[in-house]
Design a protein that fits this description.
single chain, about 350 residues, alpha/beta, Rossmann fold, three-stranded mixed sheet, 12 strands, about 40% helix, binds nicotinamide-adenine-dinucleotide, binds 2'deoxy-thymidine-5'-diphospho-alpha-D-glucose
């Protein structure tokens, strides 16, 4: 027994979104003990949590969600009341290179966690919750019209989205079969600070700073719905506390952008910030071979979350993008650390052949 009112395991808390969720919960709920369980893969970085690492209600545990013993030991040690599960392999391009790594972490890892909850919560299930953080990519690809709702049929098209869809199905299977209290949210593309520079926005910012080509896949006409990462963390907080067990909630930015328009906007903002003449950064744009099976458009209808739980995004995109760019300009060392070593090999393999 500890003196905290709730003990919450957050998996993947050293990653991009996870670190924002951990920070929000540690600061907002001093009566909760927050245990960040993360294997620290290439995407996990404890520098992301420097500001709260000594907080009295925070612990870090280096553990792998695919390792049943690691997870059982943590459940025995902490007697968790809830799990917020974010740990995953998260990059679509990497899933095309190595799909089985995604099956292992995203499917097997989620099943291991669900099974630990089933076993450890068997005696007393009151006030327990398994919160699964998922993606809008499980719904597949939209044409020019329409939105994903919670009723849209699953139609994943990349190894990443297939692995996330499978993990969502496991979560619902444990709800129906074992009455495990679960909730799932499916979110659109996030952006903000601490985003690993393999993803579109931070990769483009980093390349603009370094005067490197800006690799736009295909014709750049694919559309994504961008959400400020701190608004995603706020949505997770709201759903964690007020969401209905067994339900799914879509989270989105109400903010669709064609990739090429977004890259042009970043170039304009950065020309100003870097005191470059207008058009200098945009001259770096290079159209490259398209992503295999590239989903054309994602767009979320987040109406259920807004109507039922009162959440909506807090930040206008242009303001959030500028804040994000400023963060990268002020945090060279963070970028240097995460892009040293293995990232260089990935970048060469991913872009040299395009
Ligand atoms: P990320 O790649 O930045 O971070 C993933 C974290 O998981 C890292 O800290 C990594 O070390 C950890 N991890 C990986 N394998 C692990 C394992 N076997 N055991 C323990 N920890 C492990 O990912 P992200 O972008 O922050 O995404 C977090 C979650 O949100 C994922 O589940 C992703 O599918 C989902 N999601 C992401 C977005 C997005 O735009 N980034 C949008 C919707 C949903
Ligand atoms: O929709 C939610 C998903 O968003 C999350 O589940 C994923 O974890 C997250 O990685 C993200 O997936 P995307 O594939 O949409 O994000 P990414 O940043 O990789 O790519 C965004 C768009 O930009 C996509 O259409 C591909 C394109 N792109 C990407 C890169 C890295 C480029 O044109 N060039 C690039 O170099």
């Amino acid at each position: 027994m500890n003196h905290f009112s709730k003990t919450v395991m957050i998996t993947g808390g050293a990653g991009f979104i996870g670190s924002h969720v951990v920070r929000l919960f540690v600061n907002k709920y001093p009566s909760y003990l927050i245990v960040n369980a993360d294997a620290l893969t290439y995407a996990g970085n404890l520098e992301n949590l420097k500001d709260i690492e000594h907080a009295p209600n925070y612990r870090f545990e280096k553990s792998d969600i695919t390792n049943e013993k690691d997870i059982a030991d943590l459940f025995s040690q902490y007697s968790f009341d809830a799990v917020i599960h974010l740990a995953a392999e998260s990059h679509v391009d990497r899933s095309i290179i190595d799909p089985l790594a995604f099956v292992k972490t995203n499917v097997m890892g989620t099943a291991v966690l669900l099974n630990a909850c089933r076993k450890f919560w068997k005696k007393d299930i009151t006030n327990k919750l398994f919160y699964h953080v998922s993606t809008d990519e499980v719904y597949g690809s939209l044409g020019e019209e329409g939105f994903f709702t919670e009723e849209t049929a699953y139609d994943p098209r990349s190894p990443y989205s297939a692995s996330k869809a499978a993990s969502d199905h496991f979560v619902m299977a444990y709800y129906h079969t074992y009455d495990l209290p679960v909730v799932i949210s499916n979110c659109s593309n996030n952006y903000g600070s601490h985003h690993f520079p393999e993803k579109l926005i931070p990769l483009m910012i980093n390349n603009i700073i370094n005067n490197k080509p800006l690799p736009v896949y295909g014709k750049g006409e694919n559309v994504r719905d961008w959400l400020w990462v701190e608004d995603h963390a706020r949505a997770i907080d709201v759903i964690f506390h007020q969401g209905k067990t067994g339900e799914k909630y879509n989270i989105g930015g109400f903010n669709e952008w064609k990739n090429i328009d977004l890259v042009h906007l970043m170039c304009e903002i950065m020309d100003k910030k870097l005191n470059r003449s207008p058009g200098i950064s945009a001259a770096l744009i290079t159209y490259v071979k398209d992503r295999a099976g590239h989903d054309l458009r994602y767009a979320i209808d987040a109406g259920k979350l807004t109507k039922e739980l009162g959440w909506k995004p807090s930040l206008q995109f242009e303001e959030g993008l500028e804040k994000t760019i400023d963060w990268y300009l002020q945090n060279h060392n963070w970028v240097k650390h995460v892009t040293s070593g293995d990232y260089q090999n990935y970048y060469t393999e991913q872009y040299a052949k395009r």
